[in-house]
UniProtKB/TrEMBL annotation:
This is Permease. It comes from Paenibacillus rhizosphaerae. The lineage of its organism: Bacteria, Bacillati, Bacillota, Bacilli, Bacillales. The keyword Signal does not apply. It comes from the Bacteria. Keywords: Membrane, Transmembrane, Transmembrane helix.
Length: 240
């Protein structure tokens, strides 16, 4: 019940902070970039992917999904934390009859909901873009399109958990943002990393030769461990 109250309050705060605009722009920007890509090279790409245009569109979009996810997790975590940092309202918030664990959990859930909403927009937008490009409506790979968005998202959860922890801990957001940007750039080379390396998991979750159980399951478990560690630290931390 306390988590629900804290989450409801956070939703109200976020309405004035532009986080939902960020959620929308992330997915729409990625789709717009591929719309421009296909618009400029339509004949070439259609010939290149003539056997399965939908698969081609998905491949082109996915090439930017990991870096978009890592940047998105960084910015959303920072936005969530800045609501309290920017107004110096931690003492007032934590003086309310709501446990620190509930406050931390609510912010964690808010970030996951925001990222999931962005993934849903990307899935729906992929279908719309494909139809706008005159791909066959009879062969829309709905499951693959959902996998395109949500499987890498689950594999990227550890970075979000870490980013939120750091963003809530430090008023100066330089460290978490630098870490997030570094992770996003490093994700461009994910194909060279071993399977156990978390930055490779979003790529392996979608394109891996083996089952996505390791990157997805590992992502969920590691994110939960980081969440517990962050909540434990948050409960005992003095705030200004």
């Amino acid at each position: 019940m306390m988590v629900a109250r804290a989450l409801s309050a956070d939703f109200l705060k976020m309405r004035r902070k532009g986080i939902w605009l960020l959620v929308l722009l992330g997915s729409v920007g990625l789709l717009a970039m591929q719309g421009l890509n296909f618009g400029l090279r339509y004949d070439y790409l259609l010939q290149h992917y003539q056997d399965d245009p939908w698969a081609g569109l998905i491949d082109e979009i996915f090439s930017f999904v990991p870096i978009a996810l890592f940047l998105g997790t960084t910015l959303i975590a920072s936005q969530i934390a800045n609501v309290e940092h920017g107004s110096n309202s931690w003492k007032q918030l934590l003086a309310l009859p709501i446990s620190r664990g509930a406050v931390f959990t609510a912010k964690y859930l808010l970030g996951i909901i925001a990222l999931a909403a962005s993934c849903l927009i990307l899935s729906c937008g992929t279908v719309v873009l494909g139809l706008a490009l005159k791909f066959s409506p009879d062969h829309i790979p709905y499951l693959t399109i959902l996998k395109l968005s949500f499987v890498p998202f689950l594999a990227a959860l550890p970075l979000f958990a870490l980013e939120l922890w750091l963003s809530l801990t430090f008023k100066n957001q330089a460290l978490p943002i630098t870490l997030g940007i570094t992770a996003a750039i490093a994700s461009l080379f994910a194909g060279n990393y071993p399977e156990w390396f978390p930055l490779a998991w979003p790529l392996l979750a979608f394109y891996g030769k083996a089952s996505p159980a390791l990157p997805v399951g590992g992502g969920i478990i590691l994110a939960f461990i980081i969440y517990l560690a962050g909540m434990g630290q948050f409960r005992g931390k003095d705030v200004d």
